Predict the structure of GTPase Der.
Amino acid sequence: MSKPVVAIVGRPNVGKSTLFNALAGEMISIVKDTPGVTRDRIYAEVTWLDREFTLIDTGGIEPDSKDIILAQMREQAQIAIDTADVIIFITDVRQGLQDSDSKVADMLRRSGKPVVLVVNKVDSFQKLMADVYEFYNLGIGDPIPISASSRLGLGDMLDAVAAHFPEHSAEEEEDERPRIAIVGKPNVGKSSIINKLVGENRVIVSNIAGTTRDAIDTEITWNGKEYVFIDTAGLRRKNKIKEELERYSIIRTVTAVERADVVLVVIDAVEGVTEQDAKIAGIAHERGKGVIIIVNKWDAIEKNDKTMYEYEKNVRQVLSYMPYAEIMYVSAKTGQRLPKLFDMIDMVLENQTLRISTGVLNEIMMEAVAMQQPPSDKGKRLKLYYITQVAVKPPTFVIFVNDKELMHFSYTRYLENKIREAFGFKGTSLKFFIRERK
Ligand code: GDP
Ligand code: GDP
């Protein structure tokens, strides 16, 4: 089930970053071991009571002149309207109601998206509450007073946000068609791949109605089976500022990946694999999605018998955190190997939902332990009692041990490799939790 997306919009200096950090800092849950992924605080996973959501900060660099402020705010509001389920519109009680606030509020109201109006810097409810009421004039509902820096009122605000989360609709539950997100830098060939798949195979294509986010969903039927492709390339935004464009493309990648079962990470063969590719692929890895690495434009490079080997070496090095992902060398231009994509997708889907019985898992673990002694520290040796699979998508295992501290990262990796030797699990990350049993 995909998580709701919540976006923060507001003028410079009202406290967007402070609020973002307050929400992300305490309740954040991020897989830490993704090297190459710099965390520039564009998005965070937040847990509030029993609900989880992805928080995005649409505000990038701060403009310095008044007209630019409004233009930038409109841009941010549009991104929020396009990508979020709920928008937090944040204002500042100290600066008071500003003209640009009203203009953006109008825009948000017209979009029909749920908006939670927040008034920040209400550090003392007693003294400042009277000044909060003027924000009713925005016409987008009750203003909720908070103080982001002293973490006041955040609970009430999150309740108001969560009240707008879509109920898991029966329709969505029943939709068992696999969702495939195509992500990658601009111009790597994402649209070309979709167009080729659509054009070559007399497939049934429909832009699915009710898509709220600005990814374009395309239904493709292959061998009688329906797949939904989520394309992040379809809509392009004109923005001269490079940082803003990059922020926007990351927001779109996060929201598309969130909805997907399998993610196709497209890399440009001519350009080679880059740090930006690593950042994008890391978004899929963090979320435990199925991943296939697509090296596109394979027609456009000079090849000899070592080319594929060299490419693989580079890709494995830059995307070192996902050795489990298969690499495909394709051409959207000629169609080379594209038909094989569906077999690959099916395999990854199967592996994402593979369940291994506890008996078999324990046999493998015992064998692994016999072959390589578990680590020890100060005379105490790690004992592994029991392993069991507790979830799929991604496959998740719990290992019960005598002392968690003794379980070294490299030994978990060793066990993961043994499990992969036995079952493959190609295309999917595996998660491990270590628990103590007294
Ligand atoms: P942004 O530009 O919207 O991201 O705003 P920032 O988060 O950078 O905050 C702008 C300034 O307002 C900083 O100096 C913050 O310390 C301050 N600030 C943020 N939240 C509060 C608050 O709740 N109360 C007060 N008094 N100051 C705050
Ligand atoms: P997107 O921004 O990732 O959707 O990339 P596009 O699909 O718009 O492609 C960007 C450019 O790369 C276009 O000029 C395409 O014609 C070209 N292109 C895409 N795929 C291939 C390919 O397989 N081979 C070659 N030679 N060019 C390609």
The first helix runs from residue 16 to 27.
